[in-house]
Amino acid sequence: MTAPDRTVDRHTTRWSSYLRDCGTLVGFVEPQQVSGRITRVAGLVMECVGLKLAVGSACTIPMPNGARVEAEVVGFDGDRLFLMPQSDVEGIVPGTKVLPVEATLPRPGTVPHPRRRPSDRARHLPVGMGLLGRVVDGAGRPLDGLGPLLTEDSGPINVRPANPLDRAPIVETLDVGIRAINAMLTVGRGQRLGLFAGSGVGKSVLLGMMARFTKADVVVVGLIGERGREVKEFIEHILGPEGLARAAVVAAPADTPPLMRLQGAAYTTAIAEHFRDQGKNVLMIMDSLTRYAMAQREIALAIGEPPATKGYPPSVFAKLPVLVERAGNGLVGGGSITAFYTVLTEGDDQQDPIADSARAILDGHFVLNRRLAEAGHYPAIDIEQSISRAMHTITTTAHQHAARRLKQLYSRFERSRDLITVGAYAHGTDPVLDQAIALNDKIEAFLCQEITDNVGMPQSLAELTSLFS
C-alpha cells in the first residue's frame, strides 16, 4: 500500500470514529420539551395556548408546591386548547406551564410505529387478574389501602368499535339467581340490559344480588357518580366479601371531576373487555349510565356546546351507544360481557331523555316500580313494563307460554284491582279475572324473593310451571 493510500485510510477511519462518537452523543440528547401556558380557568375548563395537541391527549400541569394536575384535551378554538382537569385546580395561576404527557419529538433510535388507531392514542390503565378483589378509581389508582396493584397488564380505555358481524349471537341463558328475572325476563349471555329506577326502590340491593348469584367467571362493577357513602356500603354490605373476591370495582363518586366519571365508565368497560378477550364470561354492572351522561353534559356545556333536549347537548346521545356497544359477546367461541346499566328516572318518569335513549340502544330493560316497593314487594320489578328482547330466542316454547300466561293474569288483576278492592266485581263475570284472583297470592309470592335467597334457573322454571298445575 502506497503512502497516499495509507493517509486516505487513516483519514477515513478517523472521520468514521468521529461520526460514531457524534451519534452516541446525540443519543444522550433529550428533545426540547415543548410546553404551553394557562391563560384562563373558568368553571370546569382551563384554556391553554402554545400547544398543538389532538383531542383526547393527556397533559400535566406542575404546581408550585411540586404536585401535578393531570388534564385531558376536550376541545379547541383556534390556537386555544380546552383542558378538563382530573382533580382540583386550586393553586393554578395565570401562565402556569402545561406539559404534554407524550414527547412531541421521539428520541433517535426510538421512533415508534405510526399510531393510527384511537386505542393506541388512548390512555392505558391496569387490567387483568390483579384487579380482582380490589377497588380502584377512574385512573387505576387503588382506593382500598391494600397496596399497589399486582398486575403488569394494561389496556386502552377507548377502543375501536367492533365489527357487528364478528360477534357471536346470544344463544345461552344466564342464571342470575333471581326468580322473577330467570322465569319472566330471561337474560342471555352477552345481553345488555337497563335497570330503570328512581331513588329508594331497591336498585342497589338488586344489583348486589345479581353480583353474588350470577353464574359468571368475573364480575366488574363501575360505581359512577354515586354518593361516596353508597360506594363503601355497596362494597361491604351489598356486594359482600364473597362477591368482592371475584369482582373488580371501579369507583368514581359524585364529588370527582366529570372527566374522572367519564373515564371511570370507560375504564370499567376496558377491564371487562380484557377478561372477555381471554375467553371469560363477564358480568358487568354499571351504576349508573345516567351519571355518565350527566358528566358528559357538564363537559360539553363547559366548552360551549349548545344544549338540545332538556339541557343535554347532542354529544351526550352520541357517546351513550359508543359506551354500550363495547359490551356484549366477543368472537364465536370466545368470552362475553353481560352488562346491566342502571338508569335513573327522575320522578319515576320513563320518558326522561336519557331513559328514552337508553331504552332504544339496550337489549331490554327492567323497570322497578315505586308502588311495589312501598307495598313491600321486593325485588320491585314491574313485569308489565319490563322486557328482555333476547328471551324469545333462548327459551323453550313451553317456558314462553307459561311466562306469557302469568303476565296476562298479573296484568288483568292489576287493571281490576280497584274494583276487586271495593267489592264491585262479581265472581263469574270474567273467567280469566277469576283465575287471576285465585292465583294472585301465589303469583305475588313467586315474584318476591328474600335478599339472601339464590333461586337458580331450574328451580325458577319448576316453580313457574307449578303455578298452573
From TrEMBL:
GO BP, sorted A to Z: bacterial-type flagellum assembly; bacterial-type flagellum-dependent cell motility; protein secretion by the type III secretion system
Entries under PROSITE patterns matching the protein: ATPASE_ALPHA_BETA
Reactions mediated catalytically: ATP + H2O + cellular proteinSide 1 = ADP + phosphate + cellular proteinSide 2
Source taxon at top rank: Bacteria
UniProt region (Disordered), positions on chain: 104-123
Single annotated GO MF: protein-exporting ATPase activity
Pfam families reported for this sequence: ATP-synt_ab, ATP-synt_ab_N, T3SS_ATPase_C
Principal localisation: cytoplasm
Sequence ranges assigned to domain AAA+ ATPase in this UniProt record: 189-372
GO cellular component: cytoplasm; proton-transporting ATP synthase complex; type III protein secretion system complex
Subcellular location: Cytoplasm
Family that this chain belongs to: Belongs to the ATPase alpha/beta chains family.
NCBIfam families named in the record: FliI_clade1 (TIGR03496), fliI_yscN (TIGR01026)
Protein name: Flagellum-specific ATP synthase
Species assigned in the record: Massilia violaceinigra
Biological classification of the source: Bacteria, Pseudomonadati, Pseudomonadota, Betaproteobacteria, Burkholderiales
Underlying gene: fliI
